Amino acid sequence: MTIPLSVQLIFELLFEHYGPRGWWPILTRADTPGFDSKGYHPGVYDIPRNRADSWEIMAGSILTQNTAWTNVEKALLRLYEARALSPEGYLSFGPESQIDLIRPAGYFNQKSVRIERLARYFLDHPQGPESREELLCQKGVGPETADSILLYAFGRPSFVVDLYTIRLICRTGLLSAEKLPKTFSKRYEYVQYFVTSDIDSLPGLNLIQTYQEDHALVVHNAKIHCAAKPKCGGCPLERYCPKLPAPV
DNA sequence: AACCAGGACGTGA
DNA sequence: TCACGTCATGGT
Which nucleotide across the nucleic acid strands is nearest to A140, CA versus C1'? Predict the structure, then answer.
């Protein structure tokens, strides 16, 4: 008789197994006190510390759209070396240079424009977005990018749903892939509400830290075990997981 | 050598 | 509303 999985139990098991993940990584703080060589900062939650941190996260959230983080690291380092990892610095370069700097992250024609517009937006809103809706009005900022920016760049309690989250929720049987809303935006809101309503029901939590940690754990576990082709051996959820089908 | 990666948007039915 | 197609590099 095994205990049925719940949202809360999944995150308990993941945290127990992996410990704090230290998201969102700040690559330009790598190898400084509290940060590892990739900029992760396990157990350190006073991020962002300044607007450079916020911008690095905003730029990274565009660069990582449908892209492996290792490629984003290359692009971020190129921007940094060129003194282009700030809104003003980035805007001082022309389109061709912008494209060349972020080339390793792929989709460079789209992303270079999206980052440029986001840079102007950030300069116009130094204290951060007025609202989630305002962020979503920016071209190239969809639900996941908006929530990533809110949660990690500005420390606001907005839970990030991604491909991995939906995959995990479906494979573990918490939601069935067929019953999920068809359209992307409805599916996003649906899964987000499903997860956060359970998290929020636990009293006494710091929602910002909890949302930050939980999303990071989902991504970390997906990279190691819950990938497109699952590698279930050693997964902390294996003994509870029915391994049901997930979309895509 | 396909497949996949920390999505978002445009198009035509 | 829905079902596609498009965008692009780099690791496995």
Answer: B8
